[in-house]
Amino acid sequence: MHYDEFIGRVQNRARLGTSGEAVRATRATLEVLGQRLFGGEAKDLAAQLPREIAHYLTSDRGSESFGLQDFFRRVSEREQVELPDAIHHARAVISVVRDSVTEGELQDVLAQLPEEYNALFESGSEGEMQR
Q1: Is 57 inside any structural domain?
Q2: Of 1, 3, 7, whose CA–CA distance to 22 is shortest?
Q3: Among 56, 116, 125, 127, which residue has the least CB neighbours within 10 Å?
Q4: Would 128 be classed as within a structural domain?
Q5: Phi and psi angles of residue 91, each rounded to the nearest 5 degrees, phi first
Q6: pLDDT value, residue 43
Q7: Model-level pTM greater than 0.70?
Q8: Ranges in the chain, pLDDT < 50
Q9: In whole angstroms, what is the distance from residue 69 CA to residue 52 CA?
Q10: In a domain, 130, yes or no
Q11: 124 DSSP assignment
């Protein structure tokens, strides 16, 4: 998938008014996800995404453990939007990531995350997240 298509899908799924808002949501979500991944997994995931956004996964060097609610809080702070909006945007971004990478890579990412993150990766961008 190319950059414009990726951002367009995020904009559509998150119902954002501009591509700039979609870029902000994508950047915030992927930077926080990159903080959560260990041992080169962020680079492996980035390798399957458009290069213009892949660097968001690897821009923060440190890896940390934190839960899903903290993930959403961090996205909210980075994107500078209210928490409910950040949750919706992050779900949209992750759903586009799912469309963009191989199933094997997706499983590698999920293997590093606590089980509570499965709801984020499996729920898509619409409706209630399954817990």
Answers
A1: yes
A2: 7
A3: 127
A4: no
A5: -60, -40
A6: 93
A7: yes
A8: 130-131
A9: 27
A10: no
A11: -
Q: How far apart are CA 59 and CA 119, in angstroms?
A: 25
CATH number, position 16: 1.10.490.110
Helices of type H across 15-102: 19-36, 41-46, 51-58, 68-79, 83-100
| 115-124, long-range: CB < 8 A, 24+ apart | 116/67, 116/68, 117/68, 117/71, 119/68, 120/68, 120/71, 120/90, 120/91, 120/94, 121/94, 123/91, 124/91, 124/95
Number of separate domains in the chain? 1
17 occurs within a structural domain = yes
C-alpha span between 11 and 116 (Å, rounded): 25
- Cα separation, 94 vs 10, whole angstroms: 9
> In one letter, which amino acid is 32?
V
| 83, amino acid identity | L
**Burial (CB count <10 Å: 0-12, 13-18, 19+), residue 84:** exposed
Beta-carbon contacts of 85 under 8 Å, excluding residues fewer than 6 positions away, are 76, 79
- At 103, list the tokens: 């199933």
